[in-house]
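User: Teach me something about this protein's shape.
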Amino acid sequence: MVSHRAIANRLAWAQDRYPLTDSDRVLAVASFGFDIAAWELFAPLAAGAAIVLPREGEHKDPAALARLLRDERITVAHFVPSLLRPILDEPAAAACPDLRAVFCGGEGMGRDLHDRFVEVLPGRTLAHFYGPTEAAISALFHDCAREEAPGPVPIGLPIANVDVHVLDETLHPVPAEVPGEIFIGGVALARGYLGRADLTADRFVPDPVGSATMRVSPGGSKMALRTASRCPGDT
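Assistant: First, the predicted structure itself:
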């Protein structure tokens, strides 16, 4: 149960961080049931930008999408890493002078994909997003630099009005470089699973750090989301 407020917060943050204008052409490839579709559709409409929809079947065809980026003069697009990788291998991908920003999320991004992007599309913005199902679209972001450190691309820092903590098994903060679980709170957090009290209890826990920005449930108890990911304490 994701709130309108959570989606509005994500859209407002994205427009501040990566502003769209009425000259942009945004490629919308996500299924309408996938949360990133909320950004692909509502963000361009709010900014007066154009939305370009692939024809049936093209959204899974790397060659067709690469040609679409070029022929439709797309300026901004979002892909899962496993789709971006084969798109970059298509000759048409390098012939997209209008493309200025590509966002990635839904999967981990390897360093090899980052390097391939820099090789094929030098000078363009590449950002990596992380967010579990229980948070609106994405909760963390990382602006990829031309030279990334070895290893997986980081999931970065929280977006506006989102709290993220890395805690140990006793729900206490871990020191830097010590692995722990990610806990997410704030306006991005969903209200739980509709009709699934068991799943809600498994995924949502009382706020373990007392942060004022963590979501307050209808019953008044502050809540946080326990994600399935583990990461070093300085992530």
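Now, about its shape. The two ends are 27 Å apart (CA to CA). The chain has two domains: 4-158, 162-231. If you'd like, I can walk through any region in more detail.
User: That's plenty for now, thanks!
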